[in-house]
Every structure is written in structure tokens, then in C-alpha cells.
Amino acid sequence: MKKHFFFALLSKKLSGEITIKESANLQRIIEEDEHYKQIAERLTDYFERNRQQLKYGGAAVNVELGHVWHRIALAEQQGFEAVCDYNRQPLRDRFTKSFLLKFAAALIVVLSCGILTFNLLNQEEPLNYSKLTTSDEKVFKTLDDGTRVCLNRGSSIHYNDNFGKKNRKIILLGEAFFDVAKNKDIPLFIQAGDINIEVKGTVFNVKAYQKNDRIEVSLLKGLVAVRGNRGKAGAVLLRPNEKLIALVGTSLNRETFQVVRMPVDKQLQDIKWIQDSLVFKKEKLQDLVLRLEKKYNIRIEIRKEELKNKRFSGTFAAEDLQQALEALKLSYPFTYTINNKLVIIK
Questions:
Q1: Where on the tree of life does the source sit, at the highest rank (predicted)?
Q2: Full set of structural domains in the chain with CATH
Q3: Is the whole-model pTM more than 0.85?
């Protein structure tokens, strides 16, 4: 209701029909809501610029009409038939052309304003956010869409309510490890300092502490697009085993971003703050089980010979043993049993 009331008042203001009381109500709404303030500024600026265009267009038409009437006066003084040139474009056609040009210009402006107004009317209301903050301990959290987040000490995130239903947006201050649930229809946007990261389903680490002089994005799996949030420059597409470094205080865009290749062992160093994390890429199962045994303090036997050389890629952070085994099964089917400290895979 407030939204429609706001646009009704703004429309009256732009058309010059607003009353003093209505103007006061409009000003109150703008002062109370930053979202409406931005819309009012954009629409007012847009309409003012196009009013100037119409003004100058109208002036040009008036000058042209003045020339026409001057030639008509000369023709009357000198004798119409002696001056008239039938090879010239008829006055009516020239006037009609000028009128149509003016009308077309005005129509374009009206349609453009209509489209802009329609887009603004259909903008979603500002998102409401929930906050997760850490102090001396790391925190693991699974968001509503299934995205897993590990938040490092002294960090915080704001994430929108109903996460995953219509929007997925996170504002990060500090360091976090993300294992993003895939959703091709609703990409996840992460704002970290002066950069924006767009993902649809991937695993990566972001370090953006306020006191640091740089922001780092380290990608383990999937693809992410990174761009500066103050300009319109194109995004950098980050691939697995790559780290993006953005120096704080510079004009952040794809030309100033530094992208370096990161071997798996160095990436593990980047995320060593994640307690008991396990990252593996195209690793044979017979080698991987040695790391699983250490992580979960168990013993694993592979009873099916062909499974030993099957390769797996993935990241385990907060998953328990059963969740880890189920995740491995998604890459290659097998069965397993868990009996106390012994796991049998076949």
C-alpha cells in the first residue's frame, strides 16, 4: 500500500500537480526510506533530462516554422507564382514531417519513461537480513537452501530472510568458507567489501577482513564471477585452483584484479583455519580412505578391488562420517557398512 501511495505522490510531483500537503507526505516517505529516496532521485533526474530534450526539440521546430512563414511573406510581396518552386517539398509535407518528428521524439520519451516507471514499480522491496556473528570460536551453519557456511573467528555474515526462495544474498565481513547448494534459477550473490561474487553452486573461501589491505577469493570447485561493486566493468571468471586478489583502496575491476594459480596443497593452507577440513581432487579412493581414517578416527576396508582406483573430488568440512560416505556415493555408487570404528566399502 505504501509503495503505490509513494508512486502516486511522485507522479503528481513530476507532472506539477502535487499539493503542499501531498508534497510534505512525499518528503516524509523519502526521508524515512532510503530505497524510495533512490527511486525518487532516479525518476526525477530521468524526467528532467528528457524535459530538456523536448524543450530543445520544440525550439528547433519553432525555428523551422519561422523560416517557413518568412518565405511565405516574401512570396506574397513578390507575387506568389513568380516565387513558387513546384520542385521544392510542399509546405504541408515539410510541416507534417517536422510535426511527426517532434511527435515521435515525444512518444519515445513517454515510452521510455513508462518502461522505467514499470521497472521501478516492480522492483522488490528491500531485503530483510538475519545476522550471524563469531567472536572467539568458528561457527558452522547450514542455510535454508542447503548452503553450508563455515565462519572464521571475528567474522560476520548478513543473509536475507527466506534464503533460497526468491533471493540468495550474503554480505560478508571477515572470512568464510562456502559450500553452495546448486540452484541454476537463483544464483547466490556475496558482497565482500568492494567486490561482488556470483555463484550457482561451488566451493570457495573468501577473506575480506576490514583491517586487511586486500580481499582474497580462493576457488576449490565450480565457477564464480567476481566484479567490483562500484563500476560496470566486466566480471572475472574464476576457475578451480585459482585465487583472486583485490587490493583495497584501488579502483576494483577486472583490470586491477590479480588471479594466480593455486596448487591443491597451497589451497589447503589457505583454508587450514577450517578445523578438520578435507579437500581432495581426482584422488584415488584407496588414497582418500587414508585421509578419511585420520579425519574420522576410524578404519576403512575396501572389499571391492575395482573401487580402489576410482577417483573422487570434493570438500568435507562439517560433515559427519555418514554424510561424507553418502556424498562420495553421488560420484560413484557403492555400498558400505559402519560397525563401531570399522567401515567396510564394497
A1: Bacteria
A2: 2-121 (no CATH), 129-270 (2.60.120.1440), 278-345 (3.55.50.30)
A3: no
